[in-house]
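Notes from the 1:1 (GR / supervisor)

We went over the backlog. Supervisor wanted to see one worked example end to end before approving the batch request, so GR pasted a single chain during the call. The sequence is below; no edits were made to it. Supervisor asked that the structure be written out right there so they could see what the output format looks like.
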Amino acid sequence: MATLQAHSPDLFQTPTPPLFNFQECLWFLDRNYDDIMHRILPDAVIKPARIAGKPVLVKIYEGEGCLISEVLRGEVTDEAALVRYVRDLFDLDTDLAPFYELLRSDPELAFMADEYRGLRLIGIPDLFEALCWSIIGQQINLSFAYKLKRRLVETFGERIDWQDQTYYLFPEPEQVALVSPAALRAHQFSERKAEYLITIARAFSTGEVSKELLTALPTPEAMIRQLTSYKGIGEWTANYALMKSLKVATCIPYGDVGLYNALHKVKGLARRPERAELDAIFSKFCGWEAYLTFYLWRTLSKPDLPSTAP
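Structure output shown during the call:
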């Protein structure tokens, strides 16, 4: 789809598909967690990013049939790269209509097609960031995970200042690869997490792992095998990173407590269902497993959702 440049050279338009709800996407980006990677306004998100390798600060808000990216700091020399970033961040290239048809065929899940209409699978375009975030979040609650992420980014990331606010870019692999385990432990990272983060950072910095190399692999299973060959990346971590960064549609984050809680509420499954039970539900959503997971996570914010659990 063509992209139009707006009246100002610092404004860029990205057309949006019919099934798109910017407010739903902003809600997901907010969720009352202390996320250092963006700032949410009532009708916009301000986000630092590397576009064609250059740090920029972008304000993204909704226009008539499009998202408008306003460059606040830095310079965008590659408009197409900025457009790809926005389309990737909000998954604008996916047609949600077939997914909604599948949801409506399930009486217990049909409500999601209407209540969350237009919600997109919000991505983490940087695969290294996605993997680090999933490693940080292993076996701890979300609040503490966001605190650890903030410490990592504020200490080792690049900063952009604008209007008395400081924004941070996620550290690049080369930066984290040089960090000592002791430096991370000083910020309350466990010894193992420190080791895992530095190991994967070194793999990225040497070119052993990259988004391009993984994308070139023939199947999602091959991608998962490649990632799980590194210490600290298990099945859950690999699936989470692939669904969020590479938008691999078939990924299911087995072992995810939030997913299990959602299925307990809407489907009456046990708090820790058997894998076969999970597969039976997801088999009806072949090719949409990642989106079903994402929408099930969305239900966790709905306290009035009637539980079907015994």
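Supervisor's comment: The chain has a mean pLDDT of 92.
Batch request approved.
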